[in-house]
Amino acid sequence: MEEFLKLLIYPACLVAFGKWVDYRLAKQKEEQEAIYRHQAEEQAKKQQREAERDLKMERMQDGILAVLRDRILQSCNYFIAQGKISQLALENITMMHDAYKALGGNGLCDRQFKTVNKLRVDTFY
């Protein structure tokens, strides 16, 4: 009887243990794959948020450029029509023009800006 148990029980235990190990490894693999899927989803969401943020930043930059261009051209046209400019107004236009160029503004305002720089600076204006 003891011999029979050795021949039947030990192999059965080994087979059961092997099946349990296979089950645990498969379960661990599933869990790891779920973690990888979750990480990939989170990464995709993060990239989507970054793309949306970058698009908003581009739109804000375009809006700021449009406002700067409008203000520069309005100010320049006003002072060109006056034939003179105050020191403070010239400094403000210069600061706007510098910011406009730093943000990637094209040369649309350059001609007007150069003309304003040639105007007589009136200290009592």
Features:
125 residues; mainly alpha; two-stranded parallel sheet; 84% helix; 3% strand; rod-shaped
Uncertain ranges: none
**Considering DSSP H and I runs of 4 or more, what fraction of the residues is helical?**
over 70%
Strand portion, in percent? Answer: under 5%
Compute the CA-based radius of gyration: 37 Å
Number of E-state strands: 2
Largest sheet: 2 strands, parallel
Number of helices: 3
SS-based class: mainly alpha
User: What is the rounded distance between the termini?
Assistant: 119 Å
Report the mean per-residue pLDDT as an integer. 91
One letter per element, helices H and strands E, the order comes to HEHHE
Strand ordering within the main sheet: 1-2
- The backbone outline, from C-alpha atoms, is rod-shaped
What is shown here, in short?
By secondary structure, this protein is mainly alpha-helical. The chain is built from three helices and two strands, in the order H-E-H-H-E.
What does this structure look like?
With 125 residues, the chain is mainly α. Helix content is 84%, strand content 3%. It has helices at 2-82, 87-102, 110-117; strands spanning 84-85, 120-121. Helix 1 crosses helix 3 (110-117) and helix 2 runs antiparallel to helix 3 (110-117).
